[in-house]
Write a structure and sequence with these properties.
The complex is a heterodimer of chains A (336) and B (357).
Chain A lengths: L1 H29 L5 H6 L5 H11 L5 H13 L13 H36 L4 H15 L2 H15 L24 H8 L2 H38 L2 H9 L3 H30 L1 H6 L5 H10 L3 H29 L1 H4 L1
Helix pairs in contact in A: 1-14, 5-6, 5-9, 5-11, 5-14, 6-9, 7-9, 8-9, 9-11, 11-14, 13-14
Chain B lengths: L2 E13 L6 E13 L3 E5 L6 H9 L6 E6 L2 E2 L15 E4 L3 H4 L6 H11 L4 H14 L16 H13 L5 E5 L7 H18 L2 E6 L2 H7 L2 E6 L2 E7 H6 L4 H8 L51 E2 L5 E2 L4 H6 L4 H21 L12
Parallel strand pairs in B: 3-8, 3-9, 6-7, 7-8
Antiparallel strand pairs in B: 1-2, 1-4, 4-5, 9-10, 10-12, 11-12
Classes of the chains: A mainly alpha (336), B alpha/beta (357).
The structure holds adenosine-5'-triphosphate (ATP), iron/sulfur cluster and magnesium ion (MG).
Chain lengths: 336, 357
């Protein structure tokens, strides 16, 4: 019962949160210099033609009126049209968002698989060799630019070793993509039972996901290590030690208390990576939502940018809600 | 009373990372605690009280010295203690909230020390029930989590957990300083009740002098990792012989308004850093009685009889000074009156507001 009340309250807050996000990003996007009409009509356009296109696009209205019109359309599920793709933004995003989600989710999963065990290992024996690796990794990975690492990985695994397909998109051009169901190619290929498409899609995923995994394992490692150390040095762990409790149990109890901060950093990274993976998307010509939004910013194509912000915001809020529900279920301090 | 705990010439220094120097936290501490006795350990913040307590329970390795418990050497890491000593020395922390695992039910927390002792489950349940009732909490609370309890209740849980192994010595590291005055008085009363029933010895660490006066039989005054004076609590409080003890006592704001303490000993300046310890008496830079000799030599311990020890070249002069010993005597009588009232009328006394840095 309480949990339903809790979800209800959270959902109630989501609407004003989204409104705020849309307003701020609207103002920001509008403040980017550049006139879409000029870009659309090219350098030979007459002032008259530009003015009439402005009227057609609604750009002759004042900013508040433009915002109001955008909101009204939004209420009808109309996110505007991209002048570059000449398609509705909603359609574009439905096609591209799953691509980003697939990449980011797998990347983050790899980051967790690398970061958490290394973080734990280094917290257990602070002076051991694993701790050394972990410290080195924390320093190194934190300072590497992701696109650079992507290029290095491409050089090693594609150019030199030829283990992975060329970094051009999500699937081989010669292979017919599976019929879209979820938009996530690997999943759709499995649903269609198309083994060849799956192999190709998975092969294309390896390097970009590995890049994201290697980079983002850094903060996860650091957080695991520091919160675990903090818990092992807390009075309740010390008490267990002095009672003569087996080390195994002391560690397990410390881990149980360290977990929430690790989950928090993972959820924050998840939301961040939707847009934060854009350089990796560009290097691998991923054609995801981040890349779409950046094209929008560069070409004064407002609606794709706003649509992307909205999608990512909803996604982040959804992730946070799920995390809160997990806490709610596992943490007595919140649920009681 | 034969001592159950003997601490002999204890030293502890902590290396400072990125430097060759050390924090010299404990610099030659010697004392003992008799069975069923309470020794109060008082001193300013940073004087090393917690470190002494941690060395005794085996959480911190000593740099030098010897600790014996009932004649057995325990000045080695906890893991190498004789097994039969497990649970015989217990600890209660200052912050009750932090000493309990937030994700563990109260009942399980209290039970934990028994798990380490491999007590069978049926016996454990009975002992847990007994323990929680001993500290005046209801059995329903065993199902709760620490966050659902008040700080005072949490500290009761910590005491129940400490008492469940029938320890002979409990190190209480400022068990009441995180509590409000009412909870503080209740915890003190509880500790005294438990001691009367079970005969447990306490090492009671505090910088709250009136609480120490109230609960201790003997007191040791720590300054910069050294015990400058120790002895019977009534004697030390009524007639302190070390300038530091006298200064500490005169700085106390007594809870009772008509005790105005005007001691002629005022300590000035800051505590020297434990990284660069001064030569000679550690108090020389702050002591109004300091003479040239104090800056060159460390004053040796002087035995005044009856277990009253003092490290000061001029303790005779301190004794002859007019430092309001009448007021201390009156304070003592008042404390005893409160103590008597405590036993009959429950926790009504005011032990609050007497903190002294
Ligand atoms: N693990 C440690 N590493 C380095 N220095 C330490 C460590 N623990 C304590 N110290 C230092 O040792 C000295 C004594 O500290 P301790 O905590 O024992 O004092 P205390 O009398 O308990 O003070 P308080 O009243 O604040 O609790 C301090 O100078 C402190 O900084
Ligand atoms: S030895 Fe000297 S400096 Fe130290 S306390 Fe006594 S009189 Fe003061
Ligand atoms: Mg302390």
């Amino acid at each position: 019962m309480r949990i339903i009340l809790y979800i209800g309250r959270r959902l109630l807050f989501i609407v004003p949160q989204l409104l705020g996000i849309v307003l701020v990003s609207f103002l920001l996007v509008k403040s980017i210099p550049g006139d879409p009409a000029v870009l659309m009509l090219g350098p030979t356009a007459t002032p008259d033609a530009i003015a009439s296109l402005h009227r057609k696009l609604g750009l002759d209205h004042s900013l508040p009126v433009q915002f109001w019109i955008y909101l009204k359309n939004l209420a009808h599920g109309d996110l505007g049209t991209s002048w570059q793709t000449t398609r509705p933004v909603l359609e574009d995003l439905i096609q591209r968002f799953p691509a980003t989600l697939e990449l980011v989710s797998l990347g983050l999963l790899l980051a967790v698989l690398i970061g958490v065990p290394l973080g734990l290992a280094s917290a257990f024996n602070e002076r051991g060799w694993l701790a050394g690796i972990a410290n080195f990794y924390g320093l190194g990975a934190g300072s590497l630019p992701d696109f650079w690492l992507a290029l290095v990985l491409i050089f090693i695994f594609y150019t030199t070793l030829q283990w992975v397909p060329a970094p051009l998109g999500r699937i081989d051009l010669t292979i017919v993509p599976p019929p879209p169901v979820t938009g996530v190619l690997t999943v759709d290929a499995l649903l269609a039972g198309d083994w060849q498409a799956f192999r190709s899609a998975a092969g294309h995923l390896v390097l970009p996901a590995l890049t994201l995994g290697l980079i983002n394992a850094g903060p996860i490692l650091k957080m695991t290590q520091s919160s675990m150390e903090k818990m092992l040095q807390s009075d309740f762990s010390r008490y267990e030690v002095l009672c003569g409790m087996p080390r195994r149990l002391v560690v397990r109890h410390a881990l149980r208390n360290a977990l929430p901060s690790v989950v928090t950093i993972i959820s924050v990274l998840y939301g961040f990576l939707i847009g934060g993976a854009v350089l990796v998307e560009i290097v691998f010509s991923w054609g995801g939502a981040g890349q779409y939004a950046v094209q929008g910013v560069l070409n004064s194509d407002f609606y794709p940018v706003l649509g992307f912000v909205l999608f990512s915001a909803i996604f982040s809020l959804f992730v946070y809600l799920v995390v809160d529900l997990i806490y709610f279920a596992i943490d007595p301090r919140i649920s009681h | 009373m034969s001592p159950i705990l003997e601490v002999e010439d204890l030293y502890k220094r902590f290396p400072i990372s990125g430097s060759r120097r050390y924090v010299q936290a404990i610099n030659g501490v010697t004392f003992s605690v008799g069975a069923g006795e309470t020794l109060g350990l008082v001193g300013e913040s940073g004087s090393g009280k917690t470190t002494v307590g941690r060395c005794i329970v085996g959480l911190t390795e000593l740099s030098a010295g010897r600790i014996r418990f009932k004649g057995e050497d325990i000045s080695k890491p906890r893991a190498r203690w004789p097994r039969h000593l497990l649970g015989k020395i217990q600890l209660v922390f200052q912050e009750p909230g932090e000493s309990l695992d937030p994700r563990m039910r109260i009942g399980r927390s209290i039970e934990e020390p028994l798990l380490a002792l491999k007590v069978p489950p049926s016996e454990r349940r009975a002992l847990v029930a007994e323990a929680i009732e001993r500290v005046g909490l209801s059995r329903e609370m065993l199902e709760l989590y620490p966050a659902e309890l008040s700080a005072g209740q949490q500290q009761r849980v910590a005491i129940a957990r400490a008492m469940i192994t029938s320890p002979e010595l409990v190190v209480l590291d400022e068990p009441t300083s995180a509590l409000d005055p009412t909870a503080r008085a209740e915890i003190i009363a509880l500790l005294m009740k438990i001691q009367a029933e079970l005969g447990t010895a306490y090492l009671f660490i505090s910088h709250d002098l009136s609480t120490v006066r109230f609960i201790s039989h003997r007191v040791a005054v720590v300054y910069l990792g050294m015990i400058v004076e120790q002895g019977d609590v009534g004697e030390v409080f009524a007639a302190p012989r070390h300038p530091y003890s006298a200064g500490l006592l005169s700085a106390v704001l007594l809870p009772h308004p008509h005790f105005s303490l005007e001691s002629s000993i005022r300590l000035e300046g800051e505590i020297p850093s434990p990284i660069n310890l001064p030569q000679g008496c550690f108090l020389a830079s702050r002591c109004p009685l300091a003479i040239a000799r104090c800056r060159q030599e460390m004053p040796p311990p002087d035995n005044l009889g009856g277990g009253h020890m003092v490290h000061c070249f001029r303790h005779r002069d301190v004794a002859s000074m007019d430092h309001a010993s009448d007021t201390f005597a009156e304070f003592q009588r008042e404390a005893e009156r409160i103590l008597a009232g405590q036993k009959t009328a429950g926790p009504v006394c005011n032990l609050g507001g007497t903190s002294n840095g």
